[in-house]
Fold these 3 entries.
Entry 1:
Amino acid sequence: MCGIVAYIGRKPAKHLLLEGLKRLEYRGYDSAGIAILGTTLKVVRTVGRVRALEDQIEKQGEIDGTLGMAHTRWATHGGVTEKNAHPHLDDGKLGHGIALVHNGIIENYAVLKRYLEDKGHVFKSETDTEVLAHLIGELYRGDLERAVQGALREVTGAYAIAVICAKEPDTLVVARKGSPLMVGVGKDEYIVASDSSAIVAHTTQAFTLADYTVAKLTRESFRTTTVDNVPVDAQVKELEFDLEQIDLGTFEHYMLKEIFEQPRSLRVCMQGRIDDRAGQVVLGGVSEFARRLATARRIVFVGQGTALHACMVGTYLMEEMAKIPSDWDFASEFRYRNPIVEEGTVVVAVSQSGETADTLSALMEAKQRGALALGIVNVVGSSIARETDAGVYLRVGPEIGVASTKAFVGQVMVAAMLSLFVGRRRFLSSEFTLAYLKQLKSVPDCIDRVLEQSDHIRSVTAKYIHRENWLFLGRGVNYPVALEGALKLKEISYIHAEGMPAAEMKHGPIALIDHGMPAVFVATRNSQYEKVLSNIQEVRSRGGHVIAVATEGDDHVRSLCEDVFYVPDLPEHLQPLVTVVPLQVLAYHAALMRGKDVDKPRNLAKSVTVE
Ligand code: M6R
């Protein structure tokens, strides 16, 4: 949800900022802009992607300078237009040449705008951000840092900002509250960005700016303060990240790369966490709370989108392995329904980015009501990871494709390990746990076997690609997989798809089925197998075409369906780890066949940092 990058140093800023912006483009790609302070302050903005910005810069002539900032936008306030693109400037007449990029939302912008208009400021955009640029300008008395601090004392909402001023060519001021921001520390230079992917090519030393903190960066030094100008410490650390992880390599798209990375990612996710001798799961991040977890009365998983589907699988796993009553909820709904949090409640926030605003708010609400707050998060040091009492990182590496794939299997894998961790402390024997862990360890090889069918999945997809409506059906622990299959298809190919419990179909949605309508069933061998077969018959007898995800060797399913994707056999509660994979591949090929931008689907952004 908007990416920002800023630079102060001795190198030409333009190339560095544009490269950084390309790395951050997954966060939003409605419009882009850049401001560089050389002999004068130059600003270039455009609707569209970073490539369009490069063309625009080319047209407008060179922009030189060693101080600057850039932004890639996901529109919230104001449409997708050039005038709403960042950077925003303080007012020309009253202004001081202040330029600002922002990720987040200034909630009280309307009040501030009226106040500033009364003082003669004229606004050019419909954004909340422009208000902040004007407010800083209004408070500017020759010290940019103080003006930014003063302005931030007046705003409510979330922000990660970078600010420069034409009158201070040696100063970059950045600040954050609620939206992510990192400062890379190089030799005589600083590169600031929404995440480390835009930093790591230049330095591996960085610090995360804490909430309510302002950093003043010059080429030689930096200082960090609160908005009240009280000095605060910033701990520079080594980034655990290398460029190879974010390179496409031989793949055409990040989504495909990330789908094929799943076996390796899961091996890393499990590494060092499985104690074969003791028949135990080792989760350092939550060990301090092992007792509270083992005596928990209720566990609630919260997340959004794909992470929510992993939450749903998590509840099945936790109830099965630990026999603790477990629920899931949309983080956005949990937060606002006055949730009952009784003693012994554990809330688990599941998130790839660790920045999803809905999930973060739900977590804060749960904490405030006395729950033990755990996180299952991918991005190290992200807001959710920092706000939880304890947690387990996915360790699946950076996920760049907007459609989440490897994070989902990572989330389910961590939920499985967490359930075993808790269950083992309650009643699970070491023999049972060991046997289960053996199955868990076989999952990467199982996924490899599914991926070998990629060509077959592509040819099946081609048969139905002209169809505008699809159903995805599953039962029990494979019901969330049906939801996930539908979400993947709709978000990147824009085909209408609905996921639901297979049994629910006959209560209404069956009316949708007409001749040739594709219905994807997760029909693996498990406790609900026979029932799913009946649901398949119901669809077939009404002319629907059934594509089944079935257990290897199941010839019976083949005889009932038009097409089958086989997956290796696994215990019922681990099946989502493999049944989801053919559905990811199907969605990928469908989007490609329809000529869609797989990694950057329309209207979406990788992390949704507004509620
Ligand atoms: O970063 P998070 O896991 O918290 O993100 C949650 C959802 O926004 C995310 O899963 C979204 O639904 C993806 N586009 C799904 O592919």
Entry 2:
Amino acid sequence: MKFSYKILLSCIITMAVALGIGGYLFVNDVFEASMEREMEQAADDSNILQFAFETAALNIPAKYDLLQNSAVKEIGANLEKRGQGTTRFLRLSDENREILYSSEGFVEDKDLLASIEKQTRVYRVIHPDEHYYIQTGTEITALDRTLYLETMRDVTAVYKERTRGFLVYRNLMLLILVVSSVIMFFISTWLTRPIRLLTKAAKNMTDGDYSYRAEQVSRDEMGQLTQDFNHMAGVLEKNIHDLEAEVQAREDFIAAFSHELKTPLTAVIGYADLLRSRKLDDEKHFLSANYIYTEGKRLEAMSLRLLDIIVTKRGELTAQEIDVEVLFGYLKDMYGEQHKNPFVFQYEPGRIYGEADLLKSVLLNLADNACKASEPDQPIEILGEKRKEGYFFAVQDEGVGISEEDCQRITEAFYMVDKSRSRSRNGAGLGLALCSEILKLHGSALEITSTLGEGSTFAFVIPYKRQPAVPEEEAVM
Ligand code: ADP
């Protein structure tokens, strides 16, 4: 069953119960008030009749000062006559509770009569036929006799009024329920609209439309829920895109790796086949064997680089404070005076927080790439500068430069701008990928600025101190 129908049904049930109980109590209260009035009336009737009887008894000339049964009957009949046209009945009984006079239609049973006690008036409601009556009973004394007077007052109208009250109230309740059901239907449909919109959004997302967002139609808890849902959808969408990009990157990596493996292997297999199938002269024999050797070396270097990347990716940093002099000293030793490119070292003294061997590897890769991209005699600058965010390193060359499009991709594994040129220089497009992984471990990244034909700058920043751990909540945001 739909949620809006459930709300509607619960409201209808609640209203029906409330109206039912309320109506019953109200009609019953009115009925009881009327009955109380009728009781008082019945008591008044009984009093008047008692008084009238006693007065009449005094006025009847009695033999031997005794009130005869016949006189009682006569008075009863007179009282009856006077009350004609009303709904009043009476019955008179003697000391032995034997009936002396009874109005026509008076009940026959003597239950109430038997219960009359001295100076008390007793009551009961009886329902002998289709009518309802209030029956009263009291003791009267006239002359020397003690008699019993009973009255019956017709209160059928009060009962009918109650039945009519219930009927009117039931019809009114049905009308209220129908009208309020229609109103409640629209209210519940309006209230559950955010849920329907959320369901639609969830369905669209399940069908693959991750950019779909639920429309926010209120500012209450449902509005908050929609906002949270949309936020969650945004995070999910980003994660899915990241995962897709990662899967794509892995596929590209595998494709590039197989390709990089295939090229040298084809040459190795070709030259090996030549060596085993034919007798070659010494020079060709040497050239073939040399080709196999150099390609084998390239493969070895490539597999070692790959291993470095994988180890770096999985590894943890064993960082400590390092004097930048250690790094620049190492580079000065590597690219000293005798190098084909003039190296310029310009740096401020300072201390950084990182792993020296890994940072040496980054700077070595960048310096190596700068050499590969430059003609002999073109200068290469290695800079070190203290900045607010950390120690700034930069490797600058005036070589071939890199196009903007290539800049975006050169840190991908196996990406080479000029494949044949790179391969001829023993490259496999893994150097910058390794640098990126190492810098990621240091909480840093490569910044590349380059202009084709003018040169390139590869820069990065290393913190001075251990970075405080990011609290988990902030990290999620
Ligand atoms: P490789 O090991 O083949 O040099 P890298 O990942 O180090 O691979 O470099 C990827 C590509 O980026 C290279 O093919 C090269 O063409 C280009 N590259 C790297 N550094 C420079 C530079 N300083 N100037 C011009 N091109 C560069």
Entry 3:
Amino acid sequence: MLYFTKTKEQALKNLNSNPEKGLTLDQIKKRHQEFGLNKFTEKKPPSAFIIFLKQFNNIFTYILLAAAAVSFVMRENKDAIVILAAVVINVIIGFIQESKAQNTITALKKIVETTAKVLRDGQVQVINTQQLVPGDIVLIDAGDKIPADARLIEAFNFQVDEAALTGESKHEDKEAGLTLKKGTLLADRKNMVYMGTVASAGKAKAIVTTISNKTEIGKIATLVEETKEDKTPLQKKVKKLSIQISFIISILLLVIIIGGLLTGRSLAEMFMFAVAIAVGAIPEGLLIAVTVILAIGMRRILKRKALVRELVAAETLGSTSVICTDKTGTITTGQMTVKKIINASGHEARDNNLEQILKIGLLCNDVQIDNHSKFIGDPTEIALARAAQKASLNKKELTQDLKLVAEIPFDPYAKYMSVAYKENTSTLIYTKGATEQMLNFSKQIYLGQNNIQPLTPEKKDELLKINADLSQKGYRVLSCAYKKLDGDKLDIKKVCCENLIFAGLIAIRDPIRPGVKEAIELCQQAGIEIKMITGDHKLTAKAIGHDIGLEAGSDEILEGEEFSKFSYEELKNKIPKTKIFARVEPKNKLQIVDILQDQQKVVAMTGDGVNDAPALKSADIGIAVGSGTEVAKDASDMVLLDNDFKSIEKAVEEGRGIFDNIRKVVLYLFSDLFQEVILIGGSLLLGLPLLISPVQILWVNLAEDSLPSFALAFEKKEKDVMKRPPFKLRDPILNYEMKTLIVIITIVSDFVLLALGYYFWKKTGDLNLTRSIVFTGLAIDSLFFIYNCRSMRKALWRFNPFSNRFLTFSTIFGFALTLVALYIPLFQNILG
Ligand code: ATP
């Protein structure tokens, strides 16, 4: 049925639903059976077989396969078989690791489920969007993702961004009252909303018409299933590094072969040298090790109650140098309570006066009560609804003879909310918002029934002073105003904010989360600047700042309205120094991110509303709070499941651990690689036969090195990660320290290995014995120096050698395999 051609009454009748109560439980059950879940048929993830085949697709495997082929041709059948076996083992290891990492990443992505507010059985419920059925009455607020295709039945200043569907990022005004002609284009159907698009302003009630694959977006399913995973900068860097190294080694190889041939060695022998170097020198395990570390890191961060949505964030976290955090809900608990109510004469409000203020707070309020008698909605409004409830005010009773005819929902730009109720032939306007705003909107003050007086400039100053005093004590303050007008056909946008009667101020306490102060101190120790951003009054923010150890002088606080007063150059100077941003508008957040990034800072920024999305996208790490809007979550790299600032600090800590571990693996594998190449090159220069054969190198790499390098991924983060400055994103992976270490490890171990080889070869002339000695030396050496790679800051003997179980196990396993190679006849034979 084309619902846009029908009236809303027809739609309700056709879908057999009730706009005030929603569907009954019985209806829902039946419709579930008939229509199924509201989700798209999922595309199958790449099959295990495909992931398996993918493992063959890399230079390392090509080289090994070529080496095996040439070995066959040269009748070195045993070698050829071992090399092929190595290919298989390597492919299996790669396959296991990649599937595990992939599974972790996919599983994590599924954790954030989308919910929808519905009216069912007469009550408001928050349900998983998959549970929606046709006929459900959904309640939509700004920032919600539209959960299914639906016909509007009520809309207040409601706008939808339909870019996901029409490709045009325009905010479309929507209206419930229209009926449209057949053939109206999708983009022009103003009385419909479509799944996957986003409510950008206002609020609405709608009846679900279509779900799952049959929705407009479901029909173009390709648009939805976009799971292309880009490589992170670090993965790209590692890949580049591997390619560079392989390139250098190829040149080296060529030089060695030509040099060898010129000095009279045989082609067959030189070929063995070439294969040995190729086998030893390609950092095949590196890229997958990085992916594994990132995936493990994501899981660790999740344990700290932060969900990394993009792999890239897991690594960027470690480099974070500024955290811009919202105050409300992240630094504070967001569980607000009304503590003081002050009337327009500046005293504690009582009786009729108190009732009037509470009534405005209750009627100009979007809070809903769900099926468990729990309030759902904005914490500020919940506080107001509770205070009214305590004073025995009941919204149903108060609105018995009223009809809500218009509403301007709260919006952080305007900092107020307004509603209009029709009462017989007149209209009641109730408005609440930031005190400065309310005083600007008001002409009179309410001092009790029949006692309404003009708002003089002196009175205004007095009330502003009270507002400042309350703010200074850390209260979140808002004010209420109202008026009654004759007539019921009004333009609310105009009348809601002029000539109001100011009723009073409400001071709300939002307690600070326990432990935030300590977390902020830790961040500061770690060289991370903290900046608090809030829509509240600057004095409220300053008081809260004081309590959490974020002491801000008057030149370290910047107000939203100052942004437009300063030039860009001035802002560039001011913003980095500012600790508290008060009364900001969402667009200021974007300016803050831009300027800080311009100064090479790595910025983490939190947000919750629709308007925060651009800043979240633009920040290096956009962090949405778990209770935030779907839009904010979509735009973010990480979601704070518990909304708590402490979780950001913990995530940064884990991020630093991830970066450390990646460096450790790089250090280990590269030291290994250089050791082997120099060992082989050295044999040639010293005029010795090849001191270690290709199959022996393969054995060392696979049996003794690959497991420990994997174990490094499980290395716990070091205790002092938060005591050092942040990593710089532009830092190369291999820093000066690491290069030095690689050189030292290579020189020392190769010196010993070459000396041993030289001695035994000259003394015994037994190549098998000599190789066995060098092989054992190389194996044992790499099992030992992995312990060096566990920390680049602390000496080996400063920490418990057994604290990483995986490492202990893989070291023992590595030793055992060395013994197997040396003493079990079958392997003695294969490995020569
Ligand atoms: P942040 O979440 O970034 O810390 P905030 O949530 O504290 O910011 P806003 O919600 O934008 O900031 O609130 C700014 C001001 O608007 C408050 O100080 C209060 O006076 C007023 N205000 C807040 N919520 C409402 C509301 N629901 N209705 C009317 N006014 C409100």
